[in-house]
Design goal:
2 copies of one chain form a homodimer. Chain A folds into 2 domains: 115 residues, CBS-domain (Roll); 170 residues, SLC41 divalent cation transporters, integral membrane domain (Tetracycline Repressor, domain 2, Orthogonal Bundle). Chain A has 14 helices and 6 strands. In chain A, α13 packs antiparallel against α14. The longest helix of chain A has 31 residues. Chain A is elongated and about 90 Å long. The mean pLDDT of chain A is 87. At the A-B interface, α3, α5, α6, α8 and α9 of A face α3, α5, α6, α8 and α9 of B.
Chain lengths: 324, 324
């Protein structure tokens, strides 16, 4: 497949083919079948129905072209014919194909005239590329110019360079968590056992937050789910999970250390920190999307550091209130 | 689409359709086209070529059926015709479609006789489902019986129940990190500033590890990349990233606290902990796959806790050696 030079990456323009079968609504079905023979189509799985001006009016899946006994195309065509422009983002094209059960997505110009179609092979590549990109972005790995598949066996220096930026940003952001620790030096001095639970608290907050991020990113890529409803659910689930894990960890700390106040402080920090992490993990990807940025970026260092800092601040506040 | 009751979830059996066009190698192309008319195929995008016993011999994409001027099917068929059995895992089917550029994947029985095909619509659903499942599994969310799409608006109790198990396991595993902290109580007592960098170290180890997990999971789902080569690369990249971040964090700690030994200890812990996290994050999903388990599970609590415990152990060992 050759790609025109002027296409933007990840757009319909880059994935479309131009040689597709077309017909008018009043063309006899037998004529359409007869004219298919001898033509070198790039994608013959769907016949695109246009008016005299070339504007898309409907589509006929090749299965239906053969199967249905009908005189004219208009009788068998699917008049629901959403289409994309050649500037459409590839993710939108794949969502349209899946939601409308199309195996080739028509591409039209600004006035609705058919200019080509994104064939099923390209839709496979798009779906796979979106999958690989999400895995990378959630892990904070920058995109490779030649696409996510190329990235795997790229030169080491290139792979290093695409992974470093988020980590350096994360290192800077982690100063915030260190400052939280410094601020509670007194509590740590008074009882060094308070420090024992710091990594576990950070770890649990991160794990709860990662689940919320995943639900958020999935919700954003599934257009027919209400974000508000998901958010309400996330608050309830975050509190429920926080409560369960809080009780378990308080019991565990008490069993190991026989210190009721310390156990209570850890339990409350897990409960509140878990609920905060769930809400932050859910809300940040959504906020990034609203700001026109990539929602998966909301799972990066910013999100994790906010979760960590919130959990530790809650923990130290409770420790200070209960134990000092 | 109706699904037979006896199909295993996520297998070709569940996704295949049976009414597909077939032809013999010596059938005239014109006859094949003529007989397509009037038949209600589930998937007419590809003609499957079989011998007299029904065994698959090749495939002809519908584009080629119309385009190529040939007398008989054998002249235009693609004799490279990898197929799957009806027990094949859906991920394998999608990989085959993409790697061989097939838009419908033939399904054969144990002796190679054609029994149906997985159509492009099903391949779209499979690719999307695998994407959503990876997002969930990497975040430690259990699968929903009705598939990943159904999971988003499932009842709250169900969503809670699918998220809790990994977190409880994680809470248990986090005992290991707490024990590391307890073991180094003396170092913490001697200088409480040692505790300040614990959450940042855990955070950086986790971030480096998450990138390595993502590279590993992607490598495992792309069959034509050598895992050994990726592993060698991961060691080099892990050391390179660890070195860069180690120098940066040592400089940062020195700038903030004017304590050369503490800065050195943090720097060495970031370097070594980062390298260990990269290797563990890369190797665990691969090990899970070798053990017949889901590679994405290797990113769960086990992996993170090993990374955290390793980073902190290195840190405290260096602190003990340099400062006590």
């Amino acid at each position: 497949m050759t790609t025109p030079d002027f296409c933007l990456t990840d757009t319909a323009c880059r994935h479309m083919v131009r040689a597709v079968p077309t017909a008018r609504p009043d063309t006899p079905v037998a004529d359409v079948i007869a004219t298919l023979r001898g033509q070198a189509f790039d994608c013959a799985d769907t016949v695109f129905v246009t008016d005299a001006g070339g504007r898309l009016e409907g589509i006929v899946r090749i299965n239906d072209l053969f199967a249905r006994h009908a005189d004219r195309i208009v009788e068998i065509m699917e008049p629901e014919h959403e289409a994309v422009t050649d500037q459409a983002d590839q993710e939108e094209i794949a969502q349209l194909a899946i939601s409308l059960n199309m195996i080739a997505v028509p591409v039209v110009d600004d006035v609705g005239r058919l200019i080509g179609a994104v064939p099923p092979e390209a839709l496979f590549r798009i779906l796979r590329a979106e999958h690989m990109e999400d895995l990378q972005r959630l892990a904070g790995i920058g995109p490779h110019a030649a696409g996510p598949e190329a990235a795997l066996d790229a030169p080491l220096r290139d792979r290093y360079a695409r992974r470093l930026p988020w980590l350096v940003l994360g290192l800077l952001a982690s100063t915030l968590v260190t400052l939280v620790m410094v601020r509670f030096e007194e509590a740590l001095q008074a009882n060094v056992a308070v420090a024992f639970f710091v990594p576990a608290l950070v770890y649990i907050a991160g794990a709860i937050g990662a689940q919320a991020v995943s639900v958020s990113v999935r919700g954003l890529s599934t257009q027919d789910v209400s974000i508000a409803a998901l958010m309400r659910g996330e608050v309830v689930i975050g509190l429920g999970i926080g409560l369960t894990l809080g009780v378990l960890s308080a019991a565990g700390v008490f069993a190991m250390f026989r210190d009721g106040m310390l156990a209570l402080a850890v339990g409350i920090a897990v409960l509140a920190g878990g609920a905060v992490s769930a809400v932050v993990g859910f809300a940040l990807p959504w906020a990034f999307k609203r700001l026109g940025s990539d929602p998966a970026m909301g799972s990066g260092p910013v999100c994790t550091v906010i979760q960590d800092a919130a959990s530790l601040s809650i923990y130290f506040a409770v420790v200070t209130a209960l134990m000092l």
